[in-house]
Amino acid sequence: MSSRRVTAAALVGVLVMATYGAAPAHAAITGQTATNTATTVTYRYQYTGTPTWLRVYIDTDRNAATGFATTGIGADYLLENGTLFRNTGGGWSWTVVTAVTHTSGGGVATWTVNRADIGETATPNDADLVFQTEAPLDTSARYTHVYSGSSSGGGTVTYQADTADIANPERGFYHHTGDCDTNTFDLATLQSYRTSQQTTLVMCVFYLAGFKNAPISAAALAQFQRQADTVRAAGLKMILRFAYTTSTAGDDAPLSRVLQHLDQLAPYLSANSDVIHVVQAGFIGAWGEWWYTQNFGNQGTVTQADWANRKAVVDKLLSVLPSSRMVEVRTPKFKRTMYGTGAVTSGQAYGGTAIARIGHHNDCFLASADDLGTYENTAVEYPYLAADTQFVPMGGETCQPNPPRSQCPTALQELGQFHWNYLNTDYRAEVLNGWTSGGCMTTVRRGLGHRFTLTQGTYPANATAGGSLAVQFTVQNAGWAAPFNPRGLTLVLRNTTSGAVYLRPLNADPRRWAAGTSTTVNQSVSLSGVPAGSYRLLLSLPDPQPSLANRPEYAIRLANTGVWEPATGYNDLLHTVTVR
Questions:
Q1: Where residue 30 falls among pLDDT bands split at 50, 70, 90?
Q2: Same domain membership, residue 481 and residue 434
Q3: What angle do CA 139, 144, 146 make, to 5 degrees?
């Protein structure tokens, strides 16, 4: 082995570090990962620009007093572009060990190194790393890689969580900027919600004010279809509600007219169910919120006949809406009165019955002790709602400041307790601004709905063509809710040479990945039809609707660094298997 020739660029880096200490962390380096099999280690990170030198410093003994000192570690080995070096003294003194497998391009650098070449024997079972680019000189913070492996030649990958606000489908803040029957959605604006604000939901409140005594016109139905088409083109989904009036006079339509209108709407709800996130029961009363109404029991004075008519509206809505979609009612009392006082159980969940398809929306969240009439008896309704919303949707909006209840401590507690999936970002500003100034808005943005994070996965290094492939990975749901609409789960094998893709469905249901829990998927999939070769393993959580299944905007992105592929909607499991 020959002594390493110190390049001018490298010398500049040494002088900078010697004079000022380690270079500060820089946004140019992101997505750092380190994974291993029983015999190899793979390092990867993302970078910006076109640096000449790409580096990984490796402290195998985790002793900052030995090796080259940088960013709190003592590097025993250095990867620089395609070469591995070993430190031969306390400073910048390196000897070539070997050439390594190295690729860089498209802002991603990857190395694969034999564990034996860096003296790694899983003792002390981890290593400290620092990633670097030059020029300009950008240095990451220290990163610890915990090694794992198996005697079969497989490996365990430990994944790093990502704290970013992510534009994931069917969750999060939504925009509501105008009545859906008169304010036509603008495609560019909707697209900007997703790309600039990480927002994937919009509200569509479609008023039928002109049709209380007549069928819905062809023009109005065409307007609804245009709105749905624009939402689909933008890669978003909509929270949908129909209503007849915005007046506290409650001048809505009688039951017979509502049922006729639902028959008219049935084909449109079916054709556009792919971009319907959830349907709020609506139709009855001012704003469709069931309080001020001339036909269904006004201002809380509701007879048994009125309750029967209200239930008839919900039953009809459930019957014309595809069974894969759910309905929300405005208060817990409404569901408890019409469908029974027991919360939906795990055994009933997703079974297609009314109790399993009806959730809740609260449009005066935190506005008073009872959220302006949302609750009648919190001692009963709080535990009920907490249990029910494990399996059915919960969302809504704030409607007035009410400190201290409307401030961060109570907001965070109840958003989690009631498994909130979505919230209006446009109303009400005073409450939302208080969460920003109170320091909890970032938590709210990350917490609404699902937030799936891979923690660890175990995969074999080799598999037999025509045989099976065993995979095991653990996912934590760090969000406040699980998905309530059906969601696919697919293992993807992609040939590293040809790019050919083979999809293998997994039998786990992401709707069962409950908030605050970890779930391990352990399954063997068939390799029938998969030819010999090297395959990257990836995980896809696509929208199961055929119209959206191949659109990355509608696939779930895992909250991990270095795994998301925006062009495909796949999540890289950071492991390659050889099929022989």
A1: confident
A2: no
A3: 150
